Amino acid sequence: MWLNWLKTSGTTAMAALGTVKGSSNWFSALALGVTLLKCLLIPTYHSTDFEVHRNWLAITHSLPLSQWYYEATSEWTLDYPPFFAWFEYVLSHVAKYFDQEMLKVHNLNYFNSTTLLFQRFSVIFTDVLFVYAVRECCKCIDGRKASKDLTEKPQFILSVLLLWNFGLLIVDHIHFQYNGFLSGIMLLSIARIFQKRHIEGAFLFAVLLHFKHIYVYVAPAYGIYLLRSYCFTASKPDGSVRWNSFSFIRVISLGLIVFLVSALSLGPFLALNQLPQVFSRLFPFKRGLCHAYWAPNFWALYNSVDKVLSVIGLELKLLDPNKIPKASMTSGLVQQFEHTVLPSVTPWATVICTLIAILPSVFCLWFKPQGPRGFLRCLILCALSSFMFGWHVHEKAILLAILPMSLLSVEKAGDASVFLILTTTGHYSLFPLLFTTPELPIKILLMLLFTIYSISSLMTLFRKERPLFNWMETFYLLGLGPLEVCCEFVFPLTSWKLKYPFIPLLLTSGYCAVGVTYAWCRLYASMLTGPPVGKTKKR
Amino acid sequence: MEKWPWTAVVVLLALTVRWAVSLHSYSGAGKPPLFGDYEAQRHWQEVTVNLPLRQWYFNSSENDLQYWGLDYPPLTAYHSLLCAFVAERINPAWVALHTSRGHESPAHKLFMRTTVLVADVMIYIPAVVLYCCCLKEISTKKKVANALCILLYPGLILIDHGHFQYNSVSLGFALWGVLGVSCDWDLLGSLAFCLALNYKQMELYHSLPFFCFLLGKCFQKGLKGKGLGLLLKLVGTVVASFALCWLPFFSEREQTLQVVRRLFPVERGLFEARGSVLVTGSSQAPRREGSGRAGGGPIRSCRFSS
Known about the structure:
- The structure holds two protein chains of two kinds.
- By secondary structure, chain A is mainly alpha-helical.
- Chain A contains 23 helices and no strands.
- Chain A starts with a helix and ends in a 10-residue tail after the last helix.
- Chain B contains eleven helices and no strands.
- The longest helix of chain B is centred in the last third of the chain and has 43 residues, at 204-246.
- Chain B is flat and about 55 Å long.
- The relative contact order of chain B is 0.11.
- Chains A and B meet through helix 1 and helix 19 of A and helix 1, helix 4, helix 5 and helix 6 of B.
- Chain B: Pfam families: Alg6_Alg8.
- Chain B: It is found in: Endoplasmic reticulum membrane.
- Chain B: InterPro entries: Glyco_trans_ALG6/ALG8.
């Protein structure tokens, strides 16, 4: 079978070259090319998420609705909102033509080549929604300043940055998840907002929330923007709100959409009195502050400082060894832990920190609206702030900020610079997800491919403006190379591997946390100092 | 369009596709007793590292030629020896005499696939990149496009990184030869082509054009002047490169003859088990499974590279 895929990929590449001269088939070539690459990645390593989704196929297919959120035969219980459960239900009706055995709940860890083929193809196929969303986003980009060369057009660069995004490729098509089509819905709703089709944008976002509730991170951006720039139909010349332009019809229509979507999603469970159970599955706060591998956020830096201080304290005999909690945050288990020196962090503390972090951007969106681009900037900041301060954040959540930011990166040099720093460090922080040896060349090659392309194309696009990086940023990004060599090649050969196995993970998340925090600060600065839309030239 | 970033992107894409293909299965996987070309290459490593050179091409109790006997020129044997040295350091069970027959494991597959990729990276890919860069009177975009086309050619990727062979070495050397003679580095070009020929005798297909082109160059320069000098230098280069590769096999006449017999097994008959599609398709003769070979023999896979 792979014989045919490869033959097609070769001929497609040649076809792509033939059409790259100026027709509009370059987009199809890019989309087809990456799809064929995804097909080649079918036999790669997959994580436990593969069994998670197989289990959900089984649950939704074999059991009635009333048991979906109660079923606990497998440890991978259903913890996504109802629309995703319905999505798995629809998939299961295709799966039954592949292999009926995978749809049996008690077939834990059921695996064979047919199951693998079906699951992988389901991810590849649903990515078509992502491809469509990218096409729509390209229409929202201002390409007037672009040169005649196709490869220097912002639309082309944006398409490559999104379609061939490294993070999405390895998380979806190797690790195994369905972020492609979900990101597609988000990008599509952003595109609709840009195109002033606010109702569609709101509808798509409401649907998205009921597919994966992690997108609630960016809900404040939608809420405030729609209220400020859609429900209030006009602004005063200085940018502040004109209170008498409030449109009740618009508010009601938005509210109706959100209500109807939520009713469709949660209604059946409300009728069965299962809402508390559903919510307990969706928001399991019993998990620890950090995932087994720390996402490169503020808490990673906090933990590192705590660890360093406790080691120093023990050495200088300032701390009593008996009083230190036995379980360590670095032992790799997902439980609740306490900090040693610095104050322990509770879920509510993280919620408050997150709210404080997103407030300035949300205020900016209200008091100094910058149009759809301001909305996008606020969305990215909400996603990034939630990543920085959230409870039990997964490193994959960085994609929530990286993908929308691609749209900003092809329009302004300052945004391109921040995007490159965020993307490179964010993508590098995903490396520990793929820890098997056969996948090592793939992750390094794909990372180099994406990084070299993104940096060189954006540098070419903005070559008439100031350089994208200063010397400090250049050194930091170049430092990722030696870090990878140390963690992946040198460290396993040292004697520390057995005694301190967590050191590579600690170094990776700590180093990347610095870059992510820096990008967050720069993005905030650009939002707070940007001019309001009334004072900028009309696009 | 910047040249070097785009070239880097093309090369990285080519390497990614190659490695992604190598994660799939190889020829003869899980099919005892003979397996396929993958086992043949592993067996050659076993033979070359365990036996003395004079036994490599001879049938003996230690070296059963019916089981994937060496039938490529000495340079392939030396390459197998080099890989075997590394394999022995990592895990001697991979190349242990007799006991490693049919050895299959994920770690071993990783090692074998890596050897193919390393050979590709060191010989074939630089030749392609340099060739495309040296093309005259075309834009950078077309050069990069050419490189992409050549590097993504499915036939070579499938055979080398999927089925399992080392065609990229001989083809790479042949391309270095083309580069050499095109840039007027005739001696280096002919040396490279001789290396290609000494890696796989199939390169004989390309030898006539090389011969005629270089001879034509000598005639052009005038056989009474510089042309003669060039001709003599070329003859010297060819003889020296062949001597270098075949020197250990010149110790006895029987050694040299045996190697030639293994390289050109004329007693085997017109068709191999899965011979060239063009030849079998155009001829009415039925395909014969390993016929004409004394005592039968292992079924060989298609020996024609792109």
